[in-house]
Amino acid sequence: MSYKGIKVLVTGADGFIGSHLAETLAAQGARVTALAQYNSFGLNGWLDETPEELLAAIDIRRGDIRDGGFVRGLIEGQDTVFHLAALIAIPHSYNAPQSYVDVNVTGTLNVLEAARQFSVAKVVQTSTSEVYGTALQKPIDEGHPLQGQSPYSASKIAADMMAEAYVRSFSLPVVTLRPFNTFGPRQSERAVLSTMIRQALDPDCTEIRLGDLSPTRDFNYVSNTVDAFLAIGASDTVEQGQPYNAGTGVEVSIGDMVEIVQAATGTNKPVTQEESRLRPAGSEVRALVANSEKLTAACGWSPAVDLDEGVARTIDWWRSRIKSGHIRRSADYLT
User: What is the pTM of this model?
Assistant: First the structure.
């Protein structure tokens, strides 16, 4: 597997997973174009923290995935497209569902149509384990029914189906990766593991405020997810138009995760469940755990970093952020 000299576009490269992926591709010698959402502050998201030696190898473009004309100009001449640009905060999707359709569905359509126009060799569509909803059987394989239990998950289901349609209708070479609950450095505090680590470490937080502690998740460290993107993007044996899960197969409840974080940080703060952090009753995904055998069989991927090591690395990152003062003023990720 080599990306040396390959022209690669990463949409959503200013975000959590996208920035790690763009940096890893650059380190491997790929010719990386990185899409960061346009803003008037001249900021490139997490790419602004990319080491200089890697940043020099990344062509950062600011724009908006919702603009079809812009996307066509971005994709022309690319060999491979990793499409990660999306609105992903589930709580906000209850308040602004139209924006999730605009970005996640229309944005994906723009990428697919431009890739078709310019005969891109491979498009990797980024899905999410949230499309499965609460597990009807465990572990979840790719044949599990899709359940839109939030506006966010519904928009990602629609995007995945659009990708499948472009394979069936136009023979566009698209494959879909479904990461399960990626965590690690740079992740927003809208994610449960990030918010509990920040609150555990932050001396200004006297307690750890969370929502429902009973749901279970399959937590996968970010470098594992990046490895999955690299593997599926370079593989000649994956089936076009098909989804592939990327998870650890280890199921951990949110309550147990708090205990793991408390032990790893050496803290023992009280845990408070807040009403504002609860999803609507019919929307909460009760259980997620991956069966990733299909991806492993297709391209040999398996997670290299286990939960304990991933948590330790993430805690180290948060310690440095808090020490340097590079944190949000509020520990409430819903604001």
Answer: 0.96
